[in-house]
Design brief:
Blueprint: E1 8-12, H1 17-28, E2 32-37, H2 41-53, E3 58-62, H3 68-82, E4 87-90, H4 107-129, E5 137-141, H5 145-148, H6 154-174, E6 180-186, H7 195-198, H8 202-207, H9 218-229, E7 240-243
Parallel strand pairs: 1-2, 1-4, 2-3, 4-5, 5-6, 6-7
């Protein structure tokens, strides 16, 4: 039912995890895809080959997506390749996996988290919107932490909470241009970032607090992204779509 033929999708943090799952699903629906990654060159190259194997054009861009320069260059390279930007998925982010009390939270960690999760989102959105016409889609991956907070991870929660406010602001601002702006708020997702908390009996304890009894896969996040990118969601904007198995009921 969802056909994105002729559309171009840009995905940050696209070499693995949620980003890679989004890129695969968008390409399966017919979109050409540009992914940006920071350091996983081999995985990015394999994903590009896989996307091309689906009959789509695909390209990868390497850069530090916390910076304005990298975001501008990524979008510019995609526009040079494809001619336009229809869908922008802001997925690049960091979750420091060690809980730190606020009085011990150092400047370096705070600035790194905020730069990656918040500054990078702003730079990417700004660059993409400059090349986006009517029917454009901005979709950002936030978090349940941005909705309810997360003890020991104030830096991460603050960056994702700010993302949610940014989404709502842009939804109002860009609505008259027929550009929708939405966010997916995942709970726990089975990615490389959560290896430490999932170790030993950690995963079992986490799943015991999820009503559906399981941790999401990256594909569980990519499906809602595809929906928000499609014409089926043309009248949805400013929404924070919770994808957490029922663990945080704030919708």
């Amino acid at each position: 039912m969802i056909d994105l033929t002729g559309k171009t999708a840009l995905v940050t943090g696209g070499a693995r995890g949620i980003g890679a799952a989004c890129a695969r699903l968008l390409a399966s629906a017919g979109a050409d895809v540009a992914i940006a990654y920071r350091s996983r060159a081999s995985e990015a190259a394999q994903l590009v080959d896989a996307l091309r194997g689906l009959g789509r054009d695909a390209v990868a861009f390497q850069g530090d997506l916390a910076t304005r320069h990298a975001n501008d260059a990524f979008v510019a390279s995609a526009v040079e390749r494809f001619g336009h930007v229809d869908i922008f998925v802001g997925n690049a982010g960091v979750w420091p996996d060690v809980a730190v009390p606020v009085e011990q939270l150092d400047d370096a960690r705070w600035h790194h988290t905020v730069a990656t999760n918040l500054d990078g989102m702003f730079f990417g959105a700004r660059a993409a919107v400059r090349h986006m016409g009517a029917g454009g889609r901005l979709i950002f991956i936030s978090s349940t932490a941005g909705q309810r907070g997360e003890a020991g991870h104030a830096d991460y929660a603050a960056s994702k909470g700010a993302m949610i406010s940014f989404v709502k602001s842009l939804a109002v601002e860009l609505g008259p241009r027929d550009i929708t702006v939405n966010s997916i708020a995942p709970g726990w997702v089975d990615t490389e970032a959560v290896t430490r908390p999932f170790a030993a009996e950690g995963r079992g304890r986490i799943e015991a607090n999820i009503p559906l009894g399981r941790v999401a896969s990256p594909a569980d996040i990519a499906g809602p992204v595809l929906f928000l990118a499609s014409p089926l969601a043309r009248h949805i904007t400013g929404e924070i779509l919770n994808v957490n198995g029922g663990s945080v009921l704030c919708g």
